[in-house]
Amino acid sequence: MSTETLTATHTHHDEHAHHEHHEPSFIRKYVFSTDHKMISKQFLITGIIMGCLGMLMSLLFRIQLAWPDESFGFLETLLGRWAKDGKIDPNYYMALVTIHGTIMVFYVLTAGLSGTFSNLLIPLQVGARDMASPFMNMLSYWFFFLSSVVLLSSFAVETGPASSGWTVYPPLSALQKAMPGSGLGTTLWLVAIILFIVSALLGGINYIVTVLNMRTKGMSMNRLPLTIWAFLLTAVLGLLSFPVLLGAGLFLIFDRSFGTSFYLSDIYLNGIGALTNSGGSPIMYQHLFWFLGHPEVYIILLPALGITSEVIATNARKPIFGYSAMVISLLSIAVLSFIVWGHHMFITGMNPFLGTVFMYVTLIIAVPSAVKTFNYLATLWKGNIRFTPAMLFAIGLVSFFISGGLTGIYLGNAALDVQLHDSYFVVAHFHLVMGSAAIFGMFSGIYHWFPKMFGRMMNSTLGSLHFWLTFASAYMVFFPMHFMGLAGVPRRYYQFSLIPEFGIWMNVNIFITVAAILGGAAQILFLYNFFRSIFKGKPATQNPWESNTIEWSTPVKHLHGNWPGAIPTVYRGPHEYSRPDRELDYFPQHEVGNGEPVHYEGPAEVQKTYATDNKESASKVFFSSFAHLFMLRKA
Amino acid sequence: MSTSTVNNTPKEFSPKTFIIWLFIVASTMLFLAFCSAYFVHQGDGVRNNAWLKFDLPFEFWISAGIVIVSSIFMQMAYRAALRDDIYKVPSLLTVTLICGIAFCISQYYGWLNLMDRGLFFSNKEPAEISASFVYVISAAHFAHIIGGLVLLTVGIIRASRLQIHKKNMVFINICKTYWHFLGILWILLLLFLYFA
Ligand code: HEM
Ligand SMILES: [Cu+2]
Asked: What is the pLDDT of chain A when averaged over all its residues?
């Protein structure tokens, strides 16, 4: 047995050594790379760029909300005909809100977060040379890239980008003439989202296969770092829900361009008259959309929770409190997220009984969420805490998860939601739990794994400053929105100064906008720190955080295939920090206890072509094969 | 290399096969979305007296027959490869491919049949929305078949290069899994449309 093991290992190595002889060309290395580490950086940097754009859009519409009656010359300079006389055009305001939401939800917090960290960490933390299909992985990035370009290109369209909200509800989205953004802008939005779905599926399938099939020896499921559990479940959620969004989008495309009426019925369009479409139902779109939409919010949150779990355990120098409870709560959140979508539709006239069912299942989600929160707090309790920037952001996530999660419970009550739906209360809820908590998880991951990605350290003073400014401004921006929502201020309105009842909120709106600008400015610190550190940061040591997980056993300089020698074998779970029987306060998963055998590299390679002496051409084989089929020739 | 005894039995369930299974899960979700939309819509439609019941084109049933035949050939090709009867694999895969093309033609005539009866993709009457659903569901399946035909073509090329045999079953396993999925899917969709 042992000799065979060695042979297998060796042949694999030879192959690798062979690979390393010729450096891949620039294009293969940086552009069409199939290396998961490079693809991860591509996702991250694209995500950061999209994030900046999304943030700038939000600042533009926040300016409109704070000073609806004033005009600003710089807006006209910046937006041209969309801000004549220095005031943002109402339709353009809607477009900004829509594209901001789309970018943040899909491009930053789905692709930017999952794409970056699943790609980086799955092979490195489960102990694989690369993804199951590196080629599909590369396609996944390029579909994402193309999708981003198509989405942004809608800003160059004469009628402007899609404007019916990130949920693109029909009929606004289904009728090309409903509003300016419903024309070409929405078409481009739909194309972009279809490309995005393809990207998400290609990536997600790869993540699942890699986690389930390609773990190194000893990496049993109950030794997986919680990041990997989270990425796995995220990918499963995506696999099951994105196809449904595809279906919803296809129906929408048919209604827009092929004259069908899946979502349309009895519509009168100002200036055009009554439409002939009939028989359709716009509510059906909402069902299909939210069947994706709710799992989607967990697609966003779970990776952030996974990252936080590892960062908190590492920096509290303690095992995560209740590993199995953490896994089980992730699992139950994942399962429950498929049966609660109706809580976004309480006021669509659904049967009250159905509404009640959705209400109860929604409220049950609070249980696993609370388990996670308490476990985080229990892990921090009496920990030997190292306040690295990553740790600060992880703790920030816990804070936002609590404050945002609690309002979810209000919204989940069908009776309360009648009042709160489509108000700023909802905006406050999801910006805390997603716009802040998940973003903080992403920042935490960036600060923590930056040394692994780029081989250098980020500046931690700037990191802490970035944390405190962002933390404070996020609360200042989103907390007051709860009160506005309770008072009935609706979301997606362009000019509150036209409604005297909302006059008392003007000052609050100004406060929020100023805080948002402050928060936006704080991100400059991050951008500076990030891009400077890529080139000029302090060189990283191999395991800068003294972490247990095996990605830190790879050399600082990236290798194709990750480990120069054999892939390490794993001997224990990821959280053995501060073990009383050890001098060091950590115990890496791969550290050999007492001379366990060298890891074996998987089965020998399959034999490619059938071993036959006569070299026949493919066409000859093809034609003679029919003779064989009809027994004219014997094999 | 091939003498290594690390594992003698061909390892069929490679990560690549797993990928096709996950793809199947994703497509299944797409069709579930279509079917549940159909269901919900039908409920509304029937309540408002706006849901046309009509006979499915008989070509669709012929397609189902073709699909079964094609699956049998697919299975024979797979068995041949497993037996290392390598010289039969290309032709059997070709027969499968031809059945697949016949399926496409039959579906096309099915759509013509619907149009002859005045049932178009975009409905003229509210009640005819049921026909729109039939188009969407059958066309989405058709698109999947096209993918299957591409896969089979690659399979034929590989088989003709003698790259499909007992020790290299991964690709044909993928073809087989996907092709049987498409067949079963069509039969289930047809039964759904018939009974729903
Ligand atoms: C304790 C768990 C949670 C509960 C009970 C909950 C409940 C709800 C409810 C009932 C709504 C609908 C409000 C309405 O439109 O009237 C809602 C909206 C929303 N929630 Fe949550 N939520 C929870 C956690 C989360 C998490 C973790 C995220 C994201 C990471 C999230 C993201 C969102 C988003 C994006 C919306 C608004 C969608 C829109 O209308 O644009 N929620 N939530
Ligand atoms: Cu939800």
From this structure: 90
The total of structural domains in chain B comes to 1
Sequence-distant (6+) residues with CB within 8 A of B37 are: A247, A251, A262, A284, A287, A288, B133
Of the candidates A469, A430, A433, A462, the one whose C-alpha atom is nearest the C-alpha of residue A446 is: A462
Domain ranges for chain A, please list them: 8-536, 603-635
For residue A391, give both structure tokens.
């740790």
Please state whether beta strands A268-269 and A273-274 pair in parallel, antiparallel, or not at all (unpaired). antiparallel
Mean pLDDT of A249-276: 89
Q: Classify each residue of A548-583 as buried b or exposed e, where b means 16 or more C-beta atoms within 10 Å of its C-beta.
A: bbbbbbbebebebbbbeebbbbbbbbbbbbbeeeee
- DSSP character at residue A312: H
Residue A605: pLDDT band with limits 50, 70, 90: low
Q: How close B24 gets to chain A, by Cα (Å)?
A: 10
Assign domain A8-536 to its CATH architecture.
Up-down Bundle (1.20)
Q: DSSP letters of A509-535?
A: HHHHHHHHHHHHHHHHHHHHHHHHHHH
How many Å is the maximal CA-CA distance in chain B?
71
Is the distance from CB of A368 to CB of A332 less than 8 angstroms? yes
pLDDT tens figures, A110-138: 999 999 999 999 999 999 999 999 999 99
Is 90 exceeded by the pLDDT of residue B34? Answer: yes
The ipTM is 0.84
The number of the ligand 1 atom at minimal distance from the alpha carbon of A420 is 16
A603 interfacial to chain B (CB closer than 8 Å): yes
Write the DSSP assignment of A80-114 as a string of letters.
GGGGGGGS--HHHHHHHHHHHHHIIIIIIIIIIII
3-state SS, one letter per residue, for A4-25: HHHHHHHHHHHHHHHHHHCCCC
Ligand 1: atom nearest CA of A401 is: 27
Closest CA to A411 of A514, A482, A505: A482
Which chain B residues are Cβ-neighbours of A284 within 8 angstroms? Answer: 37, 40-41
Q: Is the pLDDT reported for residue A100 higher than 90?
A: yes
Q: How do residues A12-71 score in pLDDT, each as one tens digit?
A: 443 444 444 466 777 877 788 899 999 999 999 999 999 999 999 999 999 999 999 999
Spatial distance between the Cα atoms of A428 and A424, rounded to a whole number of angstroms? 6
Q: In Å, what is the CA distance from A206 to each residue of A200, A299, B27?
A: 10, 16, 16
